[in-house]
Amino acid sequence: MNSIKRGLSISIFLAFTVLLINTPLIAAEILGGQTESLYNLGDPFNISVSLLPSKDTTGFFSSTLICDSQQTEIYRSFYTLKEGERKEIIITGKFDDFLLGNISEGSCSIRFSYDNEQTNSREFDITKRVDISLDIQGVAFDPGKSIIVKGKATKANGLPLTGFAGILIPNLNITILSPIQSGNFEFNITLPLDALPGVYEVQAHVYEKDSAGKILNEGNATESIKLKQIMKDISISFPTKTVTPGNPIEYTVNILDQAGQQIEDDVGVTFYKPDSSVFDKKLVRSAATNSFPTESNYTAGDWKVLAKTGDLEATNEFYVDELMTATFSMINGALVITNTGNVRYKRPVEISIGGVKEVRDISVGIDESKNLKLVAPTGEYDVQVSDGTKSESLGKVSITGSVISLDSATNVLKNNFFIWIWVIILIILAVIAIYYYRRVAKKKYTGTSPTKSYSPIKVGSSSSGTVATRKLTGTNKASVIEKGQKQEAAIISLYIRNMTDLQHIPNSPTLEAIQRAVSIAKETKAKIYAEGDYKLLVFAPALTGETENIMRALRTGQEIDRLFNESNKKFVQKLDFGLGIHIGDIVVDQSEGKFKFTPLGNTVGTAKRISNYARSEVLISEAVHKRTSGKVKAEKVGDMNIWRAKKIMNRGEHEEFIRQFMNRQKNEKDPRFSKTTSTHPTENKDDSERKDNSESKNLFWDPS
């Protein structure tokens, strides 16, 4: 029984084995499904797949895109196929967001399935890369020039890109966009004129978009260009534009590039004297502080400086102040006064010989010397010299002579022998004169007696700080020695640049404004003088009766400034003027009721220079500003020691007489439109007023 069961089992196993061998294992074959090795985003695909069943088959065919861990079914269809029937299937589409989702790059494959059978395509890459080649024609460029940038954009799949190209130069704020045609693009870029010199990156960015405006493929490339440094401007600057002779003046030559940056380079500098002749030439370094030394005898006035490099050049001016100075020395018993300044040395000099003082008016030309012989009883004396600006002790000097006095060395007798000869000659001449006088005196006189005689000339010495002068007087007056006094004065320099042109315009209201300015000056007790186009208004204690005249001068200057500016607003003829105010010492002489003065130092020169800088305004010197600080609101003018007078804080003092004067001017009728008055503004005034006006015209100028 057991053997029968065992034989039956073996028979069944063998029969099943034969059945498996005769039954096919694969119901259908999946053929094809080949892909490219690389696709760019948005690229289309077209895949051909063949189904070849080994038996009658019914089922779904599907294809699935597999990228990393993401799977997306891209095709599905139901097919019934007979054994051996071949079915061709074409799968098309695009590798875009619809299929890829968030995947933009990576390795992918496609799986095909039918009737429980499946196969995979080979792996392929998805990318958005675009390769760019840039070509810039040139390496170094001038600012303001154009550069040509060419490029070619090719997708990773080898096809030309159709999209857009952008050029970006970040540090120059340049961004340009242009379409790409068949993978090619070209830009013409103009570089900024004021771009900083240096190396810049030129960044190229290319891309294409889908129909929804999303970027599919893109690429970047970078090249470098160099921007040259170009000299665009040159200038000369001074910390201060005024120098006292004997001191150096500092200056800097500034060379700027296209971006306004300093360039350090060698530059040629030429110095011109006030007469425009070349004084010196130098090679200096730009952007560095340089120094130009001056000597005490350098010509006063505006010196010009010319800086030149390549095609660029610039000029500027500095002012050399007037310097009146001299040195004193004793040589062979003579006092030698040597002019070491840059203007004629013209000062009263006090000379003390053993305590006995005498004042002489000294005048010495530039680079010249004058000798004075000292005469005194034989002995040694302390000799001291003072000219108001400095005092010097020349030590003990041996002198041989009689009375203490000064003689010009050119007129001093060389020795006693010549002295005796001159004494004998004088005696002979005296005897002859007496002889002829007696012969004439014996004759009867038939002429008329003289109506006036003159007293002898007396010469005396003055105390320190005064000037001795000589004067002839009639018998009804005592012979006196007038003494000049040293006083501090305020000086207004009125500079009218176009005075010559205005004087050719008859009955000009502008000239009338000038005449009113003259009257204002006279009302304020100023003395008026003319020096060419410069009109000087002197405010001295001897004239005003006040020791402090700065505020008086300031108020007068501002009133004239207001008057002239109002005239310029009303009338076609304009006054081109400037007002400069300075204070300094003068020597005053009021002999015979006349006011005379001699300026000390640069009192007048400084006032004139300041008025030359002024343009329809009142400028004051550093000395005036310091003395009026808190009383006058002022602002500094540039880098010069000059201040612009803006406002007088306390206008109470001296204001009333100016207000009354201006009211009188307003109430008077204009003589040019009056039928009852003369055409001349002084014809209807009394004799004293006509005389006063005449005097002012002689001292100032005649606007008519």
What does this structure look like?
- With 704 residues, the chain is of the alpha+beta class.
- It folds into five domains: 28-127, Immunoglobulins (Immunoglobulin-like); 130-227, Sandwich (Immunoglobulin-like); 231-320, Sandwich (Immunoglobulin-like), CATH 2.60.40; 329-417, Immunoglobulin-like, CATH 2.60.40; 485-699, Nucleotide cyclase, GGDEF domain (Alpha-Beta Plaits).
- The chain is 20% helix and 43% strand.
- Strands 34, 35, 36, 37, 38, 39, 40, 41 and 42 form a nine-stranded mixed beta sheet that branches.
- It is rod-shaped, with a radius of gyration of 54 Å.
Secondary structure: elements and pairs:
Blueprint: H1 2-22, E1 28-32, E2 38-40, E3 44-53, E4 57-67, E5 70-81, E6 87-94, H2 97-100, E7 106-114, E8 117-120, E9 124-127, E10 130-136, E11 140-141, E12 146-155, E13 164-169, E14 174-179, E15 184-190, E16 198-209, E17 215-227, E18 231-237, E19 242-243, E20 249-257, E21 266-272, E22 278-285, E23 289-292, E24 301-309, E25 312-320, E26 326-331, E27 334-339, E28 345-353, E29 356-364, E30 369-375, E31 379-386, E32 391-399, E33 405-408, H3 416-441, E34 466-468, E35 483-496, H4 499-502, H5 509-523, E36 527-531, E37 534-539, H6 541-544, H7 550-570, E38 577-589, E39 596-599, H8 603-613, E40 618-621, H9 622-627, E41 632-636, E42 642-648, H10 655-667, H11 687-699
Parallel strand pairs: 2-9, 11-17, 19-25, 38-40
Antiparallel strand pairs: 1-3, 3-6, 4-5, 4-7, 7-8, 7-9, 10-12, 12-15, 13-14, 13-16, 16-17, 18-20, 20-23, 21-22, 21-24, 24-25, 26-27, 27-30, 28-29, 28-31, 30-33, 31-32, 34-35, 35-37, 35-38, 36-37, 38-39, 40-42, 41-42
Helix pairs in contact: 5-7
